[in-house]
Design brief:
The complex is a heterodimer of chains A (91) and B (157). Chain A is mainly α. Chain A is built from five helices and no strands. In chain A, helix 3 packs across helix 4 (55-63) and helix 4 (55-63) crosses helix 5 (65-86). The radius of gyration of chain A is 22 Å and the shape is flat. Chain B is 69% helix and 0% strand. The radius of gyration of chain B is 19 Å and the shape is elongated. The chains are: A mainly alpha (91), B mainly alpha (157). The A-B interface holds A 47-54, 56-58, 60-62, 65-66, 68-69, 71-73, 75-76, 78-80, 82-83, 86-88 and B 32-36, 38-40, 68, 72, 75-76, 78-79, 82-83, 86, 96-97, 99-100, 110-115, 117, 120-121, 123-124, 127-128, 130-131, 134-135, 138-139, 142.
Chain lengths: 91, 157
């Protein structure tokens, strides 16, 4: 069982390292991701449209605010579910 | 009471550090608009402060600071703040979560958006902190032994 677990870990690690080789260089502005028109749009307009200088926050709370509301609901629901399942009854 | 919880050094350090950790959590939440940070991260830091206090001073003491009822209220209040902000935008004629439509500051929808984003982040932080604390209390050992944690064997303080 331990050998199997070790094998799974090693295979996953090798796959991650292998896949990591194809990632674009950090901070490179010539990649497709950076040159995409959505990225350019957010870089140019997010501060004037949402008022916050942090593009990540502008995306998280403004452009994708509905998504973040769902994320918060997931956390709330998870907490409530654990509370229902594990909380001991007041006797 | 375990030896870690008896240690004067740890009890004093925790008592001094908890307010600063809470302050840092609020800073991270509010700083989310201008740099790294945000409601999720700040909420977890705030929860960690209360969890640290409860770990050292005992579950019963921790529940005096953050009772189960307060937990439930805060968890749902945070989500209500978020959804309420979205509904407020509908009320003023915009779309759901279209912050600029709220006429808080005339002729400057971007600034309104900035403040409402802060409000929303605060809501996220409240929910996340309350859920983190309630998760910790839910999996903590029973209160019958005056809320103490099991003894950590082999740990010298």
């Amino acid at each position: 069982m331990k050998t199997l677990a070790l094998l799974v870990v090693v295979i996953t690690g090798v796959m991650l390292i292998y896949a990591g080789q194809d990632l674009p260089p950090f901070g490179d502005s010539n990649t497709d991701m950076y040159q995409h028109r959505m990225t350019q749009y957010f870089i140019e307009n997010s501060e004037s449209e949402s008022g916050v200088s942090n593009i990540v926050t502008a995306l998280l709370a403004n452009y994708r605010g509905y998504d973040t509301l769902g994320e918060t609901t997931v956390i709330f629901t998870a907490g409530m579910a654990v509370m229902l399942l594990l909380r001991r009854r007041e006797t | 009471m375990s030896r870690i919880q008896e240690s004067v050094i740890i009890r004093t350090v925790v008592r001094i550090m908890v307010p600063f950790i809470e302050l840092f959590a609020l800073y991270v939440i509010i700083h989310g608009a201008g740099g790294p940070g945000g409601g999720f991260q700040g909420g977890v830091i705030f929860g960690a402060a209360i969890i640290l206090y409860a770990m050292i001073y005992g579950i019963a003491e921790g529940k005096k600071k953050m009772s189960d009822a307060l937990d439930k209220i805060l968890a749902s209040t945070g989500l209500t703040i978020y959804a309420g902000t979205g509904l407020l935008c509908i009320l003023f004629g915009g779309m759901f979560l279209q912050y600029g439509s709220v006429p808080l500051i005339p002729d400057n929808p971007a600034l309104v958006s900035k403040y409402l984003i802060d409000l929303v982040e605060l809501g996220i932080g409240t929910t996340v902190a309350a859920v983190m604390i309630s998760l910790f209390f839910d999996v903590s050992p029973p209160e019958s032994e005056e809320g103490e944690l099991p003894d950590y064997e082999g740990v010298d303080v």
